[in-house]
Design goal:
With 498 residues, the protein is an alpha/beta fold. The protein contains 15 helices and 17 strands. Strands 1, 4, 5, 6, 7, 8, 11, 12 and 15 form a nine-stranded mixed β-sheet that branches. Strands 2-3 form a two-stranded antiparallel ribbon.
Length: 498
């Protein structure tokens, strides 16, 4: 008989049981640094005044960061649907000259577009719908659709050579946020909280918020995997803050239950869960313990977070008229600043409605109106408070939009553009990125990157680098291989770093 497990031998080791009791490196540090040892215990001791000097909870990996970091926080203003680069940030005078003419086949021959376009043969050139003007000392060209962003051009690094592999929304968004087109991989915020840990003690390290312009007909669905933890333990997934009512459900205790009763219940529950964890070795039980504790602390931290009475009137006015309306992009931008002030590592604001297949001349104006002023205000606000130095603000979507028209050129109210993965613009501010520059260049019609291309994996590698992480070293073993945010690709784009 071999040494393999024998179902007929009652004394033979059970491989399932052995697997459950096996501790890998990450689980070990998760148990000792990220479970009840630092979350529940620190909370209990701090409550009793025994450990007033205990530092904030930090559950990062040993040896991370790998090098000196230029930034410690990220605010990702993600624009779902694919903002049209040739109408906003990528000025192409030749589109005006060739407007209405058949698109030169040499630019698009053999390229894959969405099924709504199919082959681009015979499509007509479509001009930028509003004029471009230069802004700041750097002279960056920005459309009249984005006047507030143009005002902060000297604080922005425009990356105009972005390109991606995906041509449809959900795969492209997943690719941008997790490095894989198929759902199931950890997103940026999950990777960062896994590697770097959590600074604050009363809020999650990764928060996601969503918004959509009122009356928008082309909004994209917000899938939970856009802020998911994938195969990482679920305590690293983003905490979704709701756009209506209480940002987080069940913040208030039920009637008849006071804080002391709730505290005692959680203590007993933690003991029961710890017993179960000792038996099964399942790291998700540790997640359950820490999340119960986090929910308890958020009963006081979230009301303080959302109380805007301490915000000066000039700050509220800077973000625009919608800043006090919960669920709007302006509100979420202000919340983003307040969140990172309270130790949140990664804030992901997702705004849908940029998918203008037949509403370029109507809904694009709404999108720019609702996002331009708050985005610029966030950068200004962070800069005034000295927070922009170590906070990276990202503005961009999953791809751009075609320089040729989708629809009838004679029916302006129904003009549209299709998905375009081959060239688009993303801008970054703060966190050690060079301000006041435009890096990369698309061709004269905005179709292909012709100078200094930046692939999605390159962008991810550069972002991690600024946070002190070597993108090739931050890995997690799953299903027999070590995964990372950048898969097996990516290089740091040093030319855009200060």
């Amino acid at each position: 008989m071999s040494d393999a497990w024998n179902i007929f031998d009652p004394n033979a080791p059970d491989p399932i049981r052995e697997h459950q009791l096996d501790i890998n490196r990450r689980q070990f540090f998760g148990r000792t640094a990220g479970g009840i040892g630092t979350a529940a215990l620190a909370s209990l001791l701090g409550r009793d005044g025994i450990a007033a000097d205990v530092p904030p909870r930090r559950a990062g990996l040993p040896g991370v960061p790998h090098h000196g970091a230029k930034a410690k926080n990220v605010i990702y203003l993600f624009q779902n649907g694919g903002p049209t680069h040739v109408d906003i940030f990528d000025y192409k005078p030749n589109l005006t000259k060739l407007h209405g003419e058949p698109f030169p086949n040499g630019y698009v021959e053999g390229k894959r577009f969405s099924t709504m376009t199919g082959k681009a043969d015979g499509k007509l050139v479509l001009n930028s719908i509003e004029p471009f003007r230069q802004g700041g000392k750097c002279g960056a060209w920005v459309s009249d659709l984005m006047p507030y962003t143009r005002e902060i051009a000297d604080d922005i690094c425009f990356i105009k050579g972005m390109h991606t592999d995906a041509v449809n929304h959900a795969p492209a968004i997943s690719f941008m946020l997790s490095g894989g087109q198929i759902p199931g991989r950890p997103t940026m915020g999950a990777w960062l909280t896994y590697g770097l840990g959590i600074e604050g003690d009363n809020l999650p390290g990764f928060v996601a918020m969503t918004s959509i312009s009122e009356g928008t007909s082309c909004g994209q669905i917000f899938y939970d995997f856009y802020w998911g933890s994938g195969f990482l333990p679920s305590r690293y997934q983003g905490a979704k803050f709701r756009g209506t009512g209480s940002p987080v459900l069940y913040l208030k205790n039920p009637e008849g239950e006071d804080a002391n009763l709730r505290r005692g219940l959680l203590d007993d529950l933690a003991e029961l869960n710890q017993i179960k964890f000792d038996e099964a070795g399942d790291p998700e039980i540790q997640t359950r313990i820490s999340q119960y504790e986090m929910a308890y602390r958020m009963q006081t931290s979230v009301p303080d977070l959302t109380d805007l009475s301490d915000e000066p009137q000039y700050i509220l006015e800077m973000y625009g008229p919608d800043v006090t309306k919960q669920g709007t992009f302006a509100y979420n931008c202000l919340m983003s600043r307040r969140l990172i002030e309270r130790g949140v590592r990664f804030v992901q604001c997702m705004h849908a409605g940029w998918d203008q297949h037949n509403s370029l001349t109507t809904e694009l104006y709404n999108q720019c109106r609702d996002t331009d002023q708050p985005s610029a205000a966030l950068v200004k606000d962070l800069k005034m408070r000295g927070l922009l130095e170590d906070t990276i603000v990202i503005w961009g979507g999953e791809f751009g939009r075609t320089p040729f028209i989708q629809g009838d050129i004679n029916n302006r109210p129904r003009w549209g553009r299709d998905h375009h993965p081959y060239a688009f613009t993303t801008w970054v501010a703060g966190g050690g990125f060079k301000p006041g520059i435009s890096y990369g260049e698309s061709d004269d019609l905005g179709v292909n990157v012709v100078k200094d291309p930046v692939h999605v994996h390159d962008f991810q590698a550069t972002l991690l680098h600024q946070l002190g992480i070597d993108h090739e070293k931050l890995t997690y073993r799953f299903q027999g291989r070590r995964f990372r945010l950048t898969d097996v690709h990516g290089h740091v784009v040093k030319e855009i770093l200060a």
